[in-house]
Structure formats: structure tokens, C-alpha cells
Amino acid sequence: MLAGALRARTVVAGLAVMVGLAGCGPQPPDAASLLNQSSQHMLNLKGFHFQMQISGFTGSGEPVQNAQGDAHPPDLHARVNLKEGAILLEVEVVFAADKVYLKSFTGGWQQLTEAQIGEFFDARTLFDPTNGLFAAMRDTTSATRGNPEKVAGRDTYPVDGQVSAARMHQLLTLIRDQGTYRATYWIESPGSNLWRARLTGNLFDASQAATITFDFSNHDHPVSVTPPPLG
Q1: Is 231 inside any structural domain?
Q2: pLDDT tens column, 108-156
């Protein structure tokens, strides 16, 4: 009788544990899995819309205030707001067929030289498959997953981590290449869409903080960019 009662109690306890685990539902993915899956997913998209906002200290060496456009890397079409002293100027840029074109408020399209690109904003590196933002997700260390947050109406997990300054310098050459910066990614799960990414630290000056925020939408919407007519 005693042995039978003990066996019955064991079975009941086991069933209780199983029911408790089933009630918990699927466990949230870990930070490393979220970063790796989202990195690969974003690199394989046919296109997307992006917005980039730079805030905090930038200095005269970083003229870009914000940019938005559509991309199918390496091709990209965007509107960029540039600071020139106290004035904010909007220009339109096209990166297509390994060439870069600029349309300013004063006239038509012109093709830029490599030297001219380096003086203002080379967006080709932002989403480069080897050195760009999506690839940098895999190089993020000490990653931790936060509680779910809504971004653009989507359920996302924020993932915090550290990325070396040298790695971020590859993403945008105007970023300082010394030290370590904090990176946060808001990743949808399931689905792996990256909806927001934020980079913070002394990005452009050794003693003053700045932030770069990217917001993404229209994931996998096909984007085709062609060279514009000159003149």
C-alpha cells in the first residue's frame, strides 16, 4: 500500500511539473540567437526603407543631421539633411551601379568623385554586407535581451551589447575608431525583422556623447535604384 501511494504521488508530481511547463509557453529566444537570426534575415532582404537620425555632439566633421530613403544594398536612394553652419540643407543622393550622384537644392544631378563623397557622406558603408550595420550585429558582444517593447506597433525584444569603435568606424568612417560603443537592437520575434537600432557613445569627439538611431520599415519590399539623368 505504501509503495503504491508513493508511486501515485510521484506520477501526480510529474504531471504537475509538465502542466506547469506547458502553461509557461515558448521561452523567449536568447540574445545571441536574436542577433544572429536578424542579421542574416536583414542581409537577405530584397529592400527596405530606413531613417537615420544623428543627435548630440557631431562637430563640423560630421555634417549629416538625418537621412531617409530606400535601399537594396549596395544601391540606395535617399534624402539627406546636411548642416552648413547654422543652416540645414537637404540634398538627394543616389548610389547605383558603383557610382554616386547628388542633387542639391541649386540644380540637377551630378556625379560625385570618390574625394567628394568622402567629404560629406558615404552611405554605401551603412548597409554593406561585410562591414555594415546588419553584419555588425554578429560582432556585438556581452549581449543581453530586455523585456518586450513595442516599436512601430510591432512586438520586439531589445538586445543591448557592446561593439568596438573600430568595427563601427567601418560602418561610417566619420565615427571615431577608438574605444567601445553601446549598441541596442529592437528585433521582432518570430520574424527576425530589425525595426530599430541605436548606437551611443563618444562617436565623433573623445569627450562628448552622440547617438545614431536607425528605424526600418517596408521589410523585403523590392527596391530598384537606377542612375539618374545628369544635368
Answers
A1: no
A2: 899 998 888 877 778 888 999 999 999 999 999 999 999 999 999 999 9
Burial 59-72 (b: 16+ CB within 10 A, else e): eeebbbbbbebbbb
Task: Give me the CATH number covering residue 132.
Answer: 2.50.20.20
Range(s) of the domain holding residue 190 = 32-217
Phi–psi pair at 165, nearest 5 degrees: -60, -35
Cβ atoms of 78 and 92 within 8 Å: the answer is yes
Any domain includes 227:
no
Number of domains in the chain: 1
Please report whether residue 142 resides in a domain: yes
**pLDDT per position as a tens digit, 177-222:** 999 999 999 999 888 999 999 999 999 999 999 999 999 999 999 9
What is the distance between the terminal CA atoms of the chain, rounded to a whole angstrom? 97
Cβ atoms of 31 and 12 within 8 Å: the answer is no
CA distance 79 to 33: 34
pTM (two decimals): 0.85
In a domain? residue 5: no
